[in-house]
Amino acid sequence: MNRNLALHLAVIAALYILHLTLPAYHHGQVARIMVLAVFAMGYNILFGYSGLLSLGHAMFFAAGMYGMGLSAQHLGFATLPAFLIGILCATALAFVVGLLALRTIGVGFMIVTLMFAQAGYLTILYFGEYTRGDEGFVLTNTARNFGNLDFSTADTRYLAALCLFSGALLLKLLIVRSKRGRVMVAVRENEERARMLGYNTWSTKLYALTLSGLFSGASGASYAILFGYVGASFAAVPYSIFPLLWVLVGGAGTTLGPVIGTAFMFYLIDYASGVTDAYMLVVGVTLVLITLFVPGGILGLVKSRFARWIP
Amino acid sequence: MLKLSGINAGYGKNQVLFELDLSVDKGEVLCVMGRNGAGKTTAMKTIMGLIQPNSGQVEFEKRKISKLAPHTIPKLGIGYIPQGRRLFSELTVAENIEIGLMTRKKGKATRDKVLDMFPRLGERLKQRADTLSGGEQQQLATARALCLEPSVLLLDEPTEGLQPSMTALIRETVLTLKGEGVGIILVEQREDAVRAVADRVAFIENGRNAATHTIEELTEDPSPFRKHVGI
């Protein structure tokens, strides 16, 4: 077993140990962090590895969430098929958005993805009869069961989140270590040069965006099942910014950076909000300091100083 | 083998090349010389499809290629090493070479061949590209392009800023490739480098063909170097 795989398996093992030892509050928080870390991993495939900065990733998270929630709530699908429908919706949406948005680059791409996400958000509000607009809806218990597993219980929820997280983490490791993953990095580093070596850089970017949508959708669909709520706030602008911040803080272009970034941001907000009402100021200042002094993110710093081998 | 005829090209409304003609045959080294801004790099980019000519044709092995998508041109067997090397700096030496090999599905034999040409790279396979010296980076850029096993290779000022030993290695590589039948277009500013490898020299002035001479003609009368390049 190589050390990269060993490191990732160790992280998964550590999270399992936390399941056995954490108090109830943190147990729930870590489950939430694991699900949202999958969203951040998806964002990282696009931003960290392929160099495309999207400002509209909330639409993929929401597509997974609403794909799952609406098919369970209104079409009567069982949990697993509804979950798969959620992933399929997000993946298909990412592919279609990619076909159009990847005709632009740089700031143009950022604006187009932001506009698509806003259109998605407004669509959710417009079809309030089904989506219940801003208010959202709570999933019925039947939509949160699979066989004997009841995802509304703390233990099952944590272990399901861990399964999702582990699968996503190992899949992402496989993707970024694959030949196609290296081509994604090549495109990020120098798109013109990659083209001059015979690579269709547009299709590589479309591949990255579609994969990113798949991860984001899996995260959104899981969030709906594990936490039982589907709401328009998950399709709004902040949920497009969060994964960007999680990835930047943790370390873009690293497999574990988004996990660290998500956990760090979660607990920073958690801790700061217990100390002061101006907790967003604390968060903002921390982000500015990290951007100024640790531009490669937390794991980026560790990687450059101590362990360049970390993927 | 590779022929440009009557190329008019540029950037938006700024035309840089005017009715430019160039050609290179199998096993021939054509050096392209001209002052800064003469249009040498623009000509290379036009061959590679990065700039679409307004008129004129680029033909490779009698096939018109000027309308092809840029990423398909290297697959035909045209390699390009741009000015400034442009490596994938976060990837290792081995990964940079692998990226070169994957396009035309070349395998271990090609990899071994390029590493034989540049043994220094073999000692640094796990090193990140951005930690190599300038000379090693040029070797890696050349090795990566050679992984495509091109039948025509375009080199844009490959010896710029290199120490003499590295310059000699690059020249030696050009001559080896020429011996293997690879057609080479070499953009170069240095007269000594040109004399060492060229069969013909095309001088470009303000995007136009100024003159083309064989190296024998230039040995007899070197005045075109002064006239067109100011050496």
Summarize the structure.
The complex is a heterodimer of chains A (311) and B (231). Chain A is mainly alpha-helical.
What does this structure look like?
The complex is a heterodimer of chains A (311) and B (231). Chain A is mainly α and 311 residues long. Helix content of chain A is 75%, strand content 3%. Chain A has a two-stranded antiparallel sheet. In chain A, strands 2-3 form a two-stranded antiparallel sheet. In chain A, helix 4 (79-101) runs antiparallel to helix 10, helix 8 packs across helix 10 (201-227) and helix 11 packs parallel to helix 14 (297-305). Chain B has 231 residues and is α/β, with parallel strands linked by helices. A 6-stranded mixed beta sheet of chain B has the order 6-7-8-3-9-10, with helices on both faces. A 4-stranded antiparallel beta sheet of chain B has the order 2-1-4-5, covered by helices on one side. The model of chain B has no long low-confidence stretch (mean pLDDT 89). The chains are: A mainly alpha (311), B alpha/beta (231).
